[in-house]
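User: Just a sanity check before I run the rest of the batch. Below are the structure tokens for the first item. I only need the designed sequence back.
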């Protein structure tokens, strides 16, 4: 199973479950997460959703070794999963238990509250790959942390430790590793003690002014990313990774 779910009262815990691949996303996992989001949205017994990872990673982003086949086309894909996130009517809490790269980092902009283990690290590696941002992070990151911090995170491709993520506003709370899920569930239960209609109405008021801007940003980012994919800088980055060296972007 690419994902697992567990209910604790009115709180559902969704776990990314590809630990051997560091919970990297392939087409089938995009579909699995989208289906979990849609099912949870329609389940009136669940008021709050927590998302975390199995193993030592939260998510290593896109699985470049498994992009699917023509015989196994995704039902939802990345776009469908993104839509399920921005339409999800209830609070989403992240419990970032380990490294989060690419979408494992930009997902923070689509959640309502983010909790992060002390030892976890996040990274948006797009410019280091000769690519650009995704998942509406060009909008969500600036809103979360201000333009300059967002500029650094998206332009530098640097690793971010938990303290840095908290200081810049990407994370609500940093928690000792062994207490991460417990603390996140405690906070989720506070929310789950409130009326479902109030939670849904308040989240909709927060999301309604933003939703179209997020869709538009994601579409623009997708076009831009694909325009760079396979370009000289991207190919140099891929070659450098395979040769275990730093890429040379001096001529790009």
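Assistant: Here's the designed sequence for the first item:
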């Amino acid at each position: 199973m690419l994902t697992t779910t567990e209910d604790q009262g009115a709180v559902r815990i969704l776990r990314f479950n590809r630990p051997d691949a560091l919970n990297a996303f392939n087409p089938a996992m995009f579909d699995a997460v989208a289906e979990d989001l849609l099912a949870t949205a329609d389940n009136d017994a669940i008021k709050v959703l927590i998302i975390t990872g199995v193993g030592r990673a939260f998510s290593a982003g896109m699985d470049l070794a498994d992009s699917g086949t023509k015989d196994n086309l995704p039902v939802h894909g990345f776009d469908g999963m993104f839509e399920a996130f921005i339409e999800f009517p209830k609070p989403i809490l992240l419990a970032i238990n380990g490294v989060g790269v690419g979408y494992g980092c930009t997902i923070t902009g689509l959640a309502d509250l983010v909790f992060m283990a002390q030892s976890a690290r996040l990274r948006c590696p797009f410019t280091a790959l000769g690519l650009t941002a995704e998942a509406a992070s060009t909008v969500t990151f600036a809103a979360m942390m201000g333009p300059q911090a967002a500029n650094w995170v998206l332009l530098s491709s640097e690793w971010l430790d938990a303290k840095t993520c908290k200081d810049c506003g990407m994370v609500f709370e940093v928690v000792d590793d062994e207490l991460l899920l417990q603390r996140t569930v405690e906070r989720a239960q506070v929310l789950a003690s409130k009326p479902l209609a109030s939670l849904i109405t308040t989240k909709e008021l927060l999301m309604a002014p933003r939703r179209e801007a997020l869709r538009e940003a994601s579409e623009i980012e997708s076009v831009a990313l694909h325009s760079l994919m396979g370009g000289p800088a991207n190919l140099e980055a891929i070659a450098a990774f395979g040769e275990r060296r730093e890429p040379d972007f001096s001529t790009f």
